[in-house]
Each structure stands twice: as structure tokens, then as C-alpha cells.
Records
---
Amino acid sequence: MGHGHGHGVTSASGRYLRPLALSFGVLALFAALEVVVGLITGSLALLSDAAHMVTDVIGVGMALATVLLVNRRKANTRHTFGLYRAEVLAALGNAVLLVGVAGYVLVEAVQRFANPPEVAGLPVLLTAAAGLAANLVSFFALRAGAKESLNVRGAYLEVLSDTVGSLGVIVGAVLMLAFGWHWVDPVVAIGVGLFILPRTVKLGLQALRILVQSTPGHLDPVVVTEALTSLDGVREAHDVHLWTLTSGMEVASAHLTAAPDADPTSVLNRAQTLLAERFGLEHVTVQVELAGSGARCRNPRW
């Protein structure tokens, strides 16, 4: 005899629509400005900062498009969980994009050490200052959502890296103006690349863990199984699965073998309560099998 239950899965991603749209507009405007000035002045630091800002625009754009997609395409017969995984794919895309840009800037900066070009410090300083203002607007708009959504965190990480990049470009421009140290330009570019790479790799790994359905880091399947087994009327818990659908959405399924005289509905209710209150698992599917009733799990061939 089996019983299953699952609460509806809902997403809070809609609340991130306005800050993402604001960030997208502001960053697109200043990215164009930095590209133009960087090409005119020949500043690699400014071009690297502009490249990061372009990836910001792309990254925030992907995050924005994903939120629109997720909120318009609810769960249906073809996508029974909706399209929440699109948020994870967007985060992974952001990580890949940032790694590529950072790698290119690092290689180009090392090559420039041999012959640092003349860079006009004042236009670089003024443009970087404007870029910093744009990044700060986006930084504060996305900061709250970055704590809850992997998708928004990817866009936030893009903006954070570019904020640091703008600060570095400003410092480099001041040093070039004051002392004529043109070698500072590639040094700043390298510093920005090294700052963002570890954070980007971490974001990519988080997205991959979700996509391969790894157990959420704060949950232990052994502990969950033991807790289910300890419930009144339960003889055994098995086939326990824990995974993440998208940021903040953990899902679980389990099979319970109950005593012959146990009430399956009561066992089911106790299991749901335990998983929700102790482990924060609200979307769960629990199958209850009465011992000796002939009901048993089907073993898949894979």
C-alpha cells in the first residue's frame, strides 16, 4: 500500500525582476561608454573592466530572461517541475562567461608587461569613476537577492567583480597620472582576473552540484534515513533521495516499511512533519508499504 504527497513548488524569483531590470539598463549604458573610451585610450585595464561590464550586461540579461521565463512557464504536463532549473543553467552560463573573460585578460596582461603601452590616465580615471557609480547601483540592487537565488548570485558576482575592477582601474589611473607608471595598467588587469576566478569557479561548482542532483550540503541522507526509521510505526526507511531543484528548493522522496498494524496515513503525516520541521523539506513524496502486505518497491533495472 503506498501513499505519496508533495506540496506545490513555488518560486520567489519574481521579486528579483525589478532590480535585475534596473541593473541591466544601467550596466548596458556604461558598458558602451567604457568600451569606447578604452579603445580610444588603449587602456587594457579599462578594456578589461569594460569586458567585465559587458559580461555583466550579458549575465544580468540571462538572469533577467530566466526570471521572466520561470514566472511565465509554470509547471505543466511537459515540465512537471516548471522551468526552475533554467535559473541554475543561467548561473552556470555566467560562471563560464566570467572564466573565459578573466583568462583572456590574464594572458593579454602578461604579454603587455614586456612593452607597457602609453595610456591616457585622465580619460581612464573619469570613465572608471562613472563605471564604478553604475556598478554600485547594481551592487546594492542585487545584494539581497544574491543570498537567496543562485541565478541572482551569478549576476551579483558579475557586478561585484566589475566593482572591484573599477576601483582597480581608478587606482591605476591615479598612479599613472601621478608617477607615469604605465606598468600599473596590466597589473590592475591581472589583479581583477585573480580576484574573480575563485569566486566564479565556486559559483560554477554550485550550479553543477544542483544539475547533477547532488545531496544539498546541509543535509545528510544517513541522518534523514535514521530519523525516518525512528518514527512510530516505521520498521525501515529506504530509497531515500534528497536533491535541489533550484536555489532554496530542496526536494525529497522516501519509501517507508510500516508495521502491519500501523495506520499508513498516520505514518505518512508523521514523516511529512518530521521532514518539514527538522530538515526544512516541504516538497516531499513518501511511499508507505505495510510489512507482510505483499507491497514492495520496484527495483529499476538501472
Note: The longest strand covers residues 234-246.
---
Amino acid sequence: MAEQVIVCKELTKRFGDFYAVNNITFEVTKGEIFGFLGANGAGKTTAMRILCGLSFPTSGTATVAGFDVYHQQDQIKRNIGYMSQKFSLYENLTVLENIEFYGGVYGLSRQVIKERSNELIRTLGLEREAKKLVGELPLGWKQKLAFSVAIFHRPQIVFLDEPTGGVDPVTRRQFWDMIYEAAATGITVFVTTHYMDEAEYCNRVTIMVDGKIEALDAPQALKQRFQAENMEEVFYQLARSAKRSSD
């Protein structure tokens, strides 16, 4: 039986009378690419912040890498990687300085940082850019570097919040190739996106609408269920259905 590395049961986050995350339940298995899909404001980022140990839920339960989101947030943070919606590296530091800085933050030894830094720069083909300021790199390269840094310490799980926003389609495809490579090493990838075509790249997806999970399954199964040609059609059917129910 596949190991479950994220387990959520009736997880809820409320701000006054507003439910940003409303009673969601799901599990994610080791090495899975798990898509957390929905329009802006659907509750994706709020749920991710809870799972990353950055925010407490109002009710419900959740464990990440075996640690409880209420009482073991520090342990969660040590076992995950995180790439935020906004570019998260320091633009006034060089490529190499950024890698070394985050290696230190993750608690790696100097020797390990040196070895992995050289390996990463070679893998990304950034030998000529290693001493350039990150701010001088094209956006696509910044995003690839940010992802590589997020998994530099080889975490159990990496959380990616809208990682391909603003980049061109070719770079988006290349970024997903990197995600596949990470998953092949056993890293679980939890990715939020509002690009419905990216759902096709995931093993399973949830579709969030107004804080609730309206569907959870493999992309092909969802397309068959809703008799849709693509995931965008699935999403719009779910969104219309949710709107009718709330009216």
C-alpha cells in the first residue's frame, strides 16, 4: 500500500463568517504529483499555507510527512520545500550565493552545499551565469532556479504555489519536466495552479471552488466522468454546478 505523506480530514479555515477552506478531506501518496486546482480566490493558497506550517486551521486535522499541523509546524518545515507564488530568491545575490544561502538555511554542511551547488549549476547549464546576479536572469530561468533551490535539501514533499505564472508555454513545459524528474526520485509534488491544462500533467487533481473540493481524481477519469475533452471543460462544469447550488 502506498505511503500517505499528506492526510487531511475535514480541514477548515475560517475568517469571521468567511470560509476560505471549507471542510476538505484528501490524502496524497509518496512520489505523487498532486494538483490543487481552482480559480484565484478558491482557497488553494490558504490550504497550502496550513500544510506548510505557516498558518493554523480553524478546525479539522492534517498531517504532513507524519507531523501534525497544529503542534509540529517546525518539524513540517524541516521536511518540506516551498516555492511561493512570487519569486522567492534574492535578486541582489548571485546564482551561486542564493544556492549557498538556502543550503545553509536548510542546515546542510558546507561540504554538502559545495557538492550539490556544483552539481545543480551543471544540471541547469548555468556555469556561465553562476556569478551573475539573479536579477539579471530571464524569468523562466529564475523559476527553474527557485524550484531547484526548493528541493536542494531533498525534502519529502515540495509545495509549489502557482509556479509557472507569467512564463511562456515552452518554459512551462520545461518546468514540468523538472517536476517529473523530482517525483521520480521519490519527492512528492503538491502544486497549485489556475492553468487547467497543467492538470493533465498531474497523477491526480482536486478542483477547488469557493473553498470546497468539488472533484478529486485522475485527470483522465474526471474527463470521462464529465464527458469533457479537457480539464478546462471539467472545471467550468463544476463551477457552474457550484454556482447553481449556492443561488
Note: The CA atoms of residues 31 and 188 lie 4 Å apart.
---
Amino acid sequence: MVFAGMGVGMRSAVSWTSMINACCENGRPAEVLGVFEEMSIARVKVDEVILLAVISACTKLDCTSGLGNWVEESALDSGFLQNTSVANALIHMHGKMGRVKRSCEIFDAMGAVKTVVSWTAMIQALAMNGHGVAALVRYTQMLREGFMPDEVIFLSVINGCSHSRLVSEGHQLFKSMIEEYHITPWMEHYGSMVDLLCRAGSLDEAFEFVLAMPVTPDPVIWRVLASACRDHGNASLARRVMDHVIRMEPDHEGNYVLASNLYAADEDWRRVVDVRLDMGVRKGTSTAAAAVSSVEVSGE
């Protein structure tokens, strides 16, 4: 209200920056883009802080390629396309949009100004889009250039191995992280290794890996393993896993939906009825929210 009451002529660059940051900090990415569009119409000079906020908003919105191009053109027109922080953010944004080729072009154009954040953004872009081998190649290049991998880079490249079913490579990376770089794995690293083994169909090995973890596995890891058992038709192991899951989170609605679907796939209708009855009597587990996904095809 204060910003709107100022009038366009009274607003300085600080006013626009403050308004954009306020929207960004309060989780309103769509409003960030709206304010930025007003700012562009008013021909106010864009700075690095505003560009980073706008690129972050696009990334959070999973925006269309047209919107991403508009933001990148704004960075180019403002002379910030070669700015390291802006370039890193654009690599990440295009990666989230599935535009890996554009991420690679921006990354390769950076030359000697690359930082460990640049390498992380590039490896993440490749990994999240299923280019596991390319992610490994970039990881090797990063090591050759003298950069030290951290927890985030290892997580990204192991995820890339998971999506491309590069089991031996994922194992070697996990081992290298602990033994060579002395990095203590996060729960997410263990989860990625379980996902890697499950995607490759090595369910028994995944189960043994979870049991041997030096930290208590979280329910997400058990659910990943249970879903993999269902997909691969391993009903006996699935039951053992679901027992762990429901014991850990007896009031989580998703556990009962997963168990019901798992027993239905095995045509164990008696257990399906038991699970649904148990689901109904537990507070907060009688309904489940539907999930929605969107896919961009030819700009639509």
C-alpha cells in the first residue's frame, strides 16, 4: 500500500528493490515478476540484487521458457549476463526448466570466472534432467580444475547416477566422499544411494544398506524402498519395509495409502481392508490430498 501510494515518479531504485525483496522474502514469486514488469515499463535501471530476486522467483514458479527468456534478456540488456552470481542463477533456472543446453551454453561462456557454485549449478542441471554420464564428466572436469567437491555436489552427482542407473559409479562416489574427502553423509545422501539401488532393481542390497546405516533412516527412505518393492513385485520384502514405515509414522496418511496400494498389487484383499480400516480410525489419516503436475510442451 505504501509503495502504491508513492506514485511512479517518486519511486527510486531503492523503492523498487525494497518492494521486490519484500515479495521474495514472503514467498510471493508471482508478485515479484509483476513488480519487475512494472519496473521494466518505468525504465528503471536494473541491478544485480533485483535480477537475482527475479531469477529466483522464476525458478520457484517453474516458469515457461518464454518467461525465462524474458528474464535472461533483461540480464543481457542490463549488462549482467557475465556477472558470476547472475550466470549461476540462470544456469540453475534453465536447469529447473529442462533447458539443459542453455545451461551448458551459459556455463561454458563463463570461462575463468566459474566458482564452485557454478559447477554445482551445472552438475545439478544435468543430474535433475537424467544426464548422469554428462554430470560425471563435469564432475571430473571440476576436479581437474582444482575445485574441491562439497556435500551438495556429491548429492547432485549421486542423484545423476541414480537417474541413469550408474550403480558402480554411484557406489564409488559415495565411498570417495567418506574416505577420500572425509565428508559425513547427510540423510539425503543415504536416500540417494537407496534410490540408486532401487532403480537398478537391487532391492535386497538396498534393504541391507538401510539396515547398516550408522544413523536412523528417516521414513522417506523406507517409503522409497517400499515403493520400489511394489514396482518390482517383491511382496515379501515390501511387507517387512511397511512394518518399519508404519511403526515410525503411525499417523502419516501416505503410509496407509502406500500399504493399501502395495497389498492391492499383490491381490491381498484382506490386508487391504485391514489397512483401510486402520487408516480410517486414525485421526487425520482418513483423507489424502491430490497432487498435480504440469508439463510444458512446445511452449504450452
Note: Residues 1-99 form one domain.
